[in-house]
């Protein structure tokens, strides 16, 4: 795996964590996820690259 792809995945993971963490529990619930799911959702998103 090249360093650019690794960095892109890491950046996507971090951004997803930041954006989802900024939402309140009601907003997360509207999206169908809980606060405990944030890391998994971010990891899945980053791995889609």
From TrEMBL:
Domain YjiS-like: 3-38
Taxonomy, superkingdom: Bacteria
Name of the featured protein: DUF1127 domain-containing protein
């Amino acid at each position: 795996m090249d360093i650019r792809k690794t960095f892109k995945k890491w950046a996507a993971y971090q951004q997803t964590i930041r954006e989802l963490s900024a939402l309140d529990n009601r907003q997360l619930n509207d999206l169908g996820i809980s606060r405990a799911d944030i890391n998994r959702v971010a990891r899945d998103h980053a791995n889609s690259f």
